Amino acid sequence: MPSDEKSHYTPPPPVPSYEEATRGYSNNNASSSSSNPDWRPPASPIDTRPDSETEAQGLLASSSSRPRRTTPAGYQPPRVDSDEDEDGASEWTLESDRDDDDDDDDPNHNGGDVGGARTRREMEELEIEDPLNGSSASSSSRSSRSLLWRKRLALPNWKWRWRIPRMTVRLPRQSDGVAAGSGSGSAGDAEAGGESAATQTIRERLRERMPEIDSSAAFILIGRLVGLTIVLGFIYLLFMSDLFTSMSRRIGGQMFDPEAVRQHVVMSIDTARMRDTLKHFTSYAHIAGTEGDYALAKDVYNHFLRSGLDEVHEDDYHVYLNYPTKDGRAVQIMSEDGDKAIWSAKLDEPEIGGESAGHQTYAFHGHSKAGDVKGHLIYANYGSREDFRKLKEMGIDTKGAIALVRYYGTQGDRALKVKAAELAGFAGCLIYSDPADDGFLKGDVAPSGRYMPADGVQRGSVSLMSWVVGDVLTPGWESKPGLPRMKVEQTNGLVRIPSLPLAWRDAQVLLQHIQGMGQPVTEAWRGGVPDVEWWTGNSSSPIVRLKNEQDEVEQKTIWNIYGKIAGIEQTEKSIIIGNHRDAWAFGAADPNSGTAVMLEVVRVFGDLVARGWRPLRSIEFMSWDAEEYNLIGSTEYVEANVDELRKNAFAYVNLDTAVTGSEFHAAASPVYRKLLTRVLDRVQDPNFNASLRALWDGRNGELEGLGAGSDYVAFQDIAGTSSIDIHFDGPMHPYHSSYDNFDWMSRVGDPGFVYHNLLGRVLSLIILELCDRPVLPFDMGNYSLALEKYVADLIKWVEELKLQDKVHLAPVRDAVQEVKTAVEEFEKWEDEWQRAIIHSNGWEANSVTRSRIAYNSRMAAFETALLDLEPGGGITNRTQFKHVVFGPQLWSGYDEAYFPNIRDAIDAEDWKLTETIIQKTARILRQAALSLLPSEEAA
């Protein structure tokens, strides 16, 4: 029970009379109120008077029929509807409460219930029970005595109230003073300095409303202020000492332990899902820009959505593509007069996909030149520039002829084969798959083996990828509506003579028809086609017709699909994973083994996000279109977002022909060595009962160089984003043919889809390393060692050419040493950071966090610093390619090359240009070294 001691009770101020309460109304106010029955007083402010006044004073009611009038501030007109109201009312009825009541306009409405309801709410909020009834205030007829103890708490030997007395004092409204002054004194009296009756009244009422603060209330007030100061000070120290931030990180680490996350993603990779995905994505042909391609783009889009990625969107570009027509292709041996065909090549493979797959793709070359040409047939080995020079030395007339060359060999890029034939004066070019390079002489052929059968045809693009990458009509900018476009005849990215691919069954007939003509070839030129005597042919060879009429679309729509998981520490920084979707035929290995792996990894990471996990840096998944033509989808994206990528893209991971066998390979920037070996240690190959790291070391595996063969080109060579391409290789697969289908993959390429599963694990772990390690796991020391090796190889090459008197590479060599020194100094910080974290038992101060984030950014920016971004910079005559270390040479095609600009200048025997490029390369290397230092040190 509450104490009955009188000292606990603070008597209320005297209740003003009705005249005192209403004297603030002038006759004008009264008349305006009565003349307008709809007039309502403005809502009064919340009553903030001391509790003692509110508790002690009941509600008196005024007649509900009397017009409402505005009362003096702090006081409400009493209501006298009934005695029951008086007993039941417990708190002042606020004007705002009445206005909000639905029954306010009802003249029979009981205003006391409003006050009682509000009292009950307050008591329920404070969880104070009625001391008499033992329950919360719910009765409409409580004893008024209980109201005296409402909201009070008595403690032994402590005489203090539960609530601090309210300190707000309500002043009379301005109208009170005016009205009072008019009745008690004149303006002249006021001007004479006399105090008016209104002023006296205000003073009296202020005294009445001033709360009485006894010693116990003052003690409570001071105590609470001291307590509040202590709490605020503690919170301040908590944040300033970084304990709160560190604690939140530690809690997050306990909820999502990094090792547990790694184990989770590894065990979550579902082989059956990848098998089903691959079966679906290889169920019909889907060349870029076609209906099948669009259907699969929507499938990827919907998969990203179902996986719960934060952002999913489609990005369209309008690019130059070509397509074969049904009767637009022909390779024929003509009669002597050239008017009649005496033999025609079959060109296409037999239908392999079945009825449900629809018609498979015609055999053709993407971006080939349209035309219908005739000429005598000449065999030119692999079609390299050296091979055509050899023909010239033999005295073979090649002008206006049709070249027959084989895939692979000394010139791996089919486009450069056609270009070399064009420069040698040929009118057209035919490229076939020879059994010595890709056929029965190498092993079992498809569909039961890995090599090309007699009727297998390797499709592919003949755009000059190492000259112009992306849409050949918009080199250097994205292919969007409204932006400039070149004419087809203006671009340097297209060849100028028609070409077609052939199976060796068709090439056999052509080779047999030139036996005994021209010159017999050397052993190095002899292929594996059976029943053939190998001759070059000459102007007396049979006339061959090459017809290549096609549909050409200068602005064909293609579709990239993007999905993103936002990071929590560096949201703007991204780890990008990409795989192209389009295929020349069914594309089981190229590219859809990579598609199946990427979509499964998307599902696994989407599940992680659904569980509440978040990476430190953002993860972006990208499905590229039109890669097969000229790396178009990825390049257009990079060109559209190049500034953002140079600033915020930390890494690019590429999947393409991801699984064709059991041997793991990686082509990458040197920074990935440490990360990759760490990942390979964690993945076991069940077929060999060894880790991938052990198998890698067992064959002396090394990071391979990045050439110009897949979607990493634009990221590495244009944006300066450190890139890696990962895959499991086999000895061979039926590349770009209709035999690269689901049946081949399930029986030959990867029975049981074991290596799809392993690559999914490798990819997931690489992503976690890149996106969720506090310190970006780049191996900068290995980069400096690799640069030393690249320079040594360049010097050796110059010496082999006996050009050391003309080519002086000392500036580049010295600049690489500066990079090495800067890297050694740079990497010391990570050791210091690790010691600091260990010393602080895992806590990381905010200042250290900021330093770590800046350290990561400088590390990732090192690759970007190796770009030649000066006006007109880049590789000479190919300014899309900006990297001074990586990039294709003019004639290297898919093969990797180091310091390509210097090599091109030496090839051109332009010694002045060579010296200029050497000096610029050295300067850029030194600037990259400085970029590793903090800004104040670099300055």
From TrEMBL:
> Carries keyword Transmembrane helix?
yes
Q: Which GO terms describe its molecular function?
A: carboxypeptidase activity
Q: Which InterPro entries match?
A: PA_dom_sf (IPR046450), PA_domain (IPR003137), Peptidase_M28 (IPR007484), Peptidase_M28B (IPR039373), TFR-like_dimer_dom (IPR007365), TFR-like_dimer_dom_sf (IPR036757)
- Would I find Transmembrane among this entry's keywords? yes
Q: Where is this region: Disordered?
A: 1-120, 174-200
Per UniProt, the ranges with Acidic residues bias are 97-106
Q: Which residues cross the membrane?
A: 217-239
- State the family named in the UniProt similarity comment for this chain: Belongs to the peptidase M28 family. M28B subfamily.
Q: What is this protein called?
A: Uncharacterized protein
